[in-house]
Amino acid sequence: MRPFGDLPGDDPELDARRAAEEDRQRAEERRETAAALEAAGIELDPTPPGTHRHGDLVHPTDHAHPHVHAEAGQPPVTGIVGAGAVGTALGMALSRAGWPIHAVASREASRRERFRGLVSVERAFIDAQALVEEVELIVLAVPDDALAPLARTIRMYGGQAMIHTSGALGAEVLEPAQAAGTQVGSFHPLVAFADTERAVAAFHGATVAIEGDDQLLALLAEMAERIGARAVRLTPGSKPAYHAAAVLAAGGFVALLDAIAELGRVAGLDETGALAVYGPLIEGTLGNARALGIRAALTGPITRGDDGTLRAHLAALEAHAPGVVPLYRAAAEREIRLAEERGALTPAAAATLRSSLASVE
Questions:
Q1: What is the pLDDT of residues 24-64, one digit of tens each?
Q2: Residue 30, by phi and psi: left (phi above 0), alpha (psi -120 to 50) or beta?
Q3: pLDDT tens digit string along 168-181?
């Protein structure tokens, strides 16, 4: 009998278990130490300024991106950050047009999975920078307010390009993400994204506003052509005005339709009935504007100087749809100006109409 228990070397199997337990304890201590250092913001093996890391390899931040390259004559390896309505529809349209999407990034798991169910991608990420590591063309399809903060967290590599899909913001919002040899731009499809499949179909014949230097513009024009759209280059600094017009054409028009439907209910029409009754008139007016010009397409009591009809309209609105009065007044004031410019109204008739508009709150 051994008075002090088993000595090392007497039982190899027991020694192995003890060694394994000691290794496990040391590994756990290392993990706990690393977690504590990370929580304190201490990095034992920091990446030098101006560089980035791939595993154990450290490269200058502005080095050319050697990790992924499309084959000659093929679209660049493309990734989309943002799996909402715009990113998903654009991904579907490009993929169907033979422009493969390599990766998607979204913080929302449900959106990532929906994207992957609609677009064949090789990779899906939570973090945008992880996507940047694997692609040549980065498409940021995120809300406008998220663009600047996101651009400050991303670092590009030489040879990469990054674009966003905002209609209101210029390409300069992406400048914080740039490094030497990179390009930034924008690609805004003038399409309504209320429904994904309808949006994909609407790309055909739509306009895409693009920004970037000449080389990037050529690529973006090709990208627009692939999905059946036509690219237009905007005047520098004009994006807010361009987008405000787009909002009037989409959301503003829906607001006008809602007002028309509200008045239709007074006449006994439900929404479907109102669209059936007034839809052809809207389509005819748009056709006239295309064929004759906007001013020449203006018709109705304003162009005739019919003040009695205008007053009858205002009285009906105040009685049955007071919420529509400001919209009607704003439109009528612009109609008066158009009619004057066209020579359809005398100054006296225009003054009478404006007086009637001013008589209602």
A1: 777 676 666 555 544 443 344 444 545 554 444 555 555 55
A2: alpha
A3: 999 999 999 999 99
Query: In the chain, what is the straight-line distance between the N-terminal and C-terminal CA atoms, in Å?
Result: 108
**Least confident residue range of 48-62, 212-226, 242-256, 293-307:** 48-62
Q: Which helix (H) or strand (E) holds 68?
A: none
Any residues with CB less than 8 A from the CB of 311 and at least 6 apart, and which?
356
CA distance 148 to 170: 11
Pairing of strands 137-140, 161-164: parallel
Are the C-beta atoms of residues 203 and 228 closer than 8 Å to each other? yes
3-state secondary structure of 167: coil
Question: Residue ranges of the alpha helices (H) in the chain?
Answer: 12-39, 85-96, 109-118, 128-132, 144-153, 196-202, 214-226, 239-247, 253-266, 271-292, 301-304, 307-320, 325-342, 347-358
Q: Indicate the angle between helix axes 253-266 and 307-320, nearest 10 degrees.
A: 80
Average pLDDT (9-23) is: 68
CA–CA gap between residue 232 and residue 242 (Å, rounded): 12
